[in-house]
């Protein structure tokens, strides 16, 4: 009987592991689709001059896109487990952020955009591999959640102050580097949640979290390189 019980537990463990890896593959598949869509939409915004001129002459449109994307996070979270509504909301959210990214890239030199892309990809892949390695050895990154949330609030307040009271260039560089560091750590934290915490039907929300991390990391690196060519 003891042997039979052990076999059952072993089978359950193997089944859970298979389900978790299936979930992880699904999330990264969605994330890659989002990033490809972002590259396509941003490329269109950059290449089609009437679009980027329209966004450039009416900057409130770009701001509105970002605000709508933030608002869309609420229904995305509420309906994160409701298929196919979660995928429809995900598509709209990705397009809105992609348009914002395209607008920023349209007014940035191509070599700087390329540098930011390479740095973002390198950091993201490196931190993802590190997190998988660390979690496999029992490290727990759950403690990062409250610290990172507080750090983002500081970033938001600092950004608002900067908008109304422009500060010296050096402090702007510090701000962008701090933003890049925070979202680098968010990649570690959200990858940890992906491996250990998320339910199997929360694949859309898990992908959204990682997508936001990668896009913000890219934008902060881009902003830093623009200010320090």
TrEMBL record:
The chain crosses the membrane at residues 27-48, 60-79, 85-105, 112-135, 141-161, 173-192, 204-225. It is a multi-pass membrane protein. Keywords: Membrane, Transmembrane, Transmembrane helix. Its main location: membrane. It holds the Pfam family Bax1-I. It is found in: Membrane. GO terms for molecular function: calcium channel activity. GO terms for cellular component: membrane. One of its GO terms (biological process) is endoplasmic reticulum unfolded protein response. Belongs to the BI1 family. This is BI1-like protein. It comes from Selaginella moellendorffii.
């Amino acid at each position: 009987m003891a042997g039979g019980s052990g076999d059952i537990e072993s089978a359950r463990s193997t089944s859970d592991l298979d389900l978790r890896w299936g979930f992880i593959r699904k999330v990264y598949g969605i994330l890659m689709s989002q990033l490809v869509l972002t590259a396509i939409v941003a490329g269109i915004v950059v290449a089609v001059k009437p679009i980027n001129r329209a966004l450039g002459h009416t900057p409130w449109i770009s701001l509105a896109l970002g605000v709508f994307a933030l608002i869309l996070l609420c229904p995305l979270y509420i309906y994160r487990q409701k298929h196919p509504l979660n995928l429809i909301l995900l598509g709209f959210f990705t397009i809105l952020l992609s348009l914002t990214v395209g607008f920023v890239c349209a007014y940035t030199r191509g070599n700087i955009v390329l540098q930011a892309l390479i740095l973002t990809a390198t950091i993201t892949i490196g931190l993802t591999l590190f997190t998988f390695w660390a979690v496999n050895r029992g490290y727990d990154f759950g403690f990062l959640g409250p610290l990172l949330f507080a750090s983002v609030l500081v970033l938001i307040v600092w950004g608002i102050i900067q908008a109304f009271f422009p500060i010296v260039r050096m402090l702007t560089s510090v701000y962008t580097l701090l933003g890049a560091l925070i979202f680098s750590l968010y990649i570690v934290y959200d990858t940890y949640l992906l491996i250990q915490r998320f339910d199997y039907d929360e694949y859309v929300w898990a992908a959204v979290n990682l997508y936001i991390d990668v896009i913000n990391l890219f934008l902060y690196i881009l902003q830093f390189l623009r200010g320090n060519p």
